[in-house]
Amino acid sequence: MRLIVLGGGESGVGTAILGKKKGYDVFVSDYGKIKESYKKVLINNGIAWEEGQHSEDLILNADVVMKSPGIPEKKSLIVLKLIEKGIPVISEIEFAAPFTNATTIGITGSNGKTTTTMLTHHLLKSAGLNVGLGGNIGKSFAWQVADGDFESYVLELSSFQLDGIINYKPHIAIITNISPDHLDRYDYKYENYIASKFRITMNQTEDDFLIYDADDEAITEWLKNNKTKAQLIPFSLTKTLENGAFIKNKNMEINIINEEEFTMETETMALEGKHNMKNAMAATSVAKLMKIRNATIRESLSNFQGVEHRLEKVLKIQNVQYINDSKATNVNATFFALDSMNTPTVWIVGGVDKGNDYNELMSLVREKVKAIICLGVDNRKIIDVFGNVVDMMVEVSNMEDAVKTAQHLTEKGDTVLLSPACASFDLFENYEDRGNQFKNAVKHL
């Protein structure tokens, strides 16, 4: 069996290693450059590879192809040719899942999936479970399956990874929320993107569970018009649910049929903000289904450290709090960030726009934002929408200037929030690089 891996990054190299171990004839092809560290791994494992091109004669004879999530299938000529030939093009998750008997918890959503994934992993690991963390985050799932395997995995799954599944099903699936994102990959049709997210439940059976946000319009609408066999476990900030998770009188309550009821005061949790209450309800529902004791869950929820670049408090300087929310790469994520601000805010925003509608943020900007710093190559849209709404708007071209300008515009008791609502590729390598530059600039004030 010939396995072709397109993309020599973390998921590609992990898949290649698992494929080699399982007796496949493996070839890795990357149209760009492969990192030196990954090249060494491929060479040490005797896996053939190429970079800077896709050689058709070496690829089109595949039995199966694993495509890295970053490669858009509608724009990649080699992928189009493979599909035309009827060769299955799948994701890493689809390839690796049959080689493990582990229980998998799959988590998707437009926002909150990283926090929910990390928190779920933290809850299970703190309870002593032998649990791995993978998917869109950390070490490749396939690589972990090849190297030693865990009894269960918490997997963060992007819509691109879900597009490449055929038979994979998580025992427990979570959809944190759905808002327009990556529409450039879905013919600019929101319904295509929604359908992509719901692939997470398409193979689930009556023995499986789907945990979802019952306050989310796109999710509830889909569930009204489509069927899943999975047992449904909703969570909500606004409704009291007979079966599910909800907030009542500053308490988080979770009632799941056949499980002991769980309650905890929201003020004793480490995570703050409404959106994080949702992430906590989703993760705790998993912990209950995995039979973890209430006392262990409470302890884990109160000591969770949070996720880097997601509403991360960096420093307080002259009584001004600096917050790094570089992971907010769409409007919905920034909405949550602005919604959780309790003091006058200087907002650093901008980058590569993915078809954003900034008007969704208008009421929050009027209420909370005193000044806007635009940090992007093209800021026209932001200036057009908010130019007359805030007293001060400044354009800068690097992070150091953004942070210094922010410092000049603040008074005691204010907050400086980096929450770009955009991708980062115009001025930075990725959102981590953007967040790290912000933290560095703050530390050098």
Automatic annotation (TrEMBL):
GO terms for molecular function: ATP binding; UDP-N-acetylmuramoylalanine-D-glutamate ligase activity. It is found in: Cytoplasm. It comes from the Bacteria. Coiled coil: none annotated. Pathway: Cell wall biogenesis; peptidoglycan biosynthesis. ATP binds at residues 109-115. It is an enzyme of class 6 (ligase). Its EC number is 6.3.2.9. It catalyses: UDP-N-acetyl-alpha-D-muramoyl-L-alanine + D-glutamate + ATP = UDP-N-acetyl-alpha-D-muramoyl-L-alanyl-D-glutamate + ADP + phosphate + H(+). GO terms for cellular component: cytoplasm. Residues 309-422 form the Mur ligase C-terminal domain. GO terms for biological process: cell division; cell wall organization; peptidoglycan biosynthetic process; regulation of cell shape. NCBIfam families: murD. Cell wall formation. Catalyzes the addition of glutamate to the nucleotide precursor UDP-N-acetylmuramoyl-L-alanine (UMA). Belongs to the MurCDEF family. This is UDP-N-acetylmuramoylalanine--D-glutamate ligase. It comes from Flavobacterium cellulosilyticum.
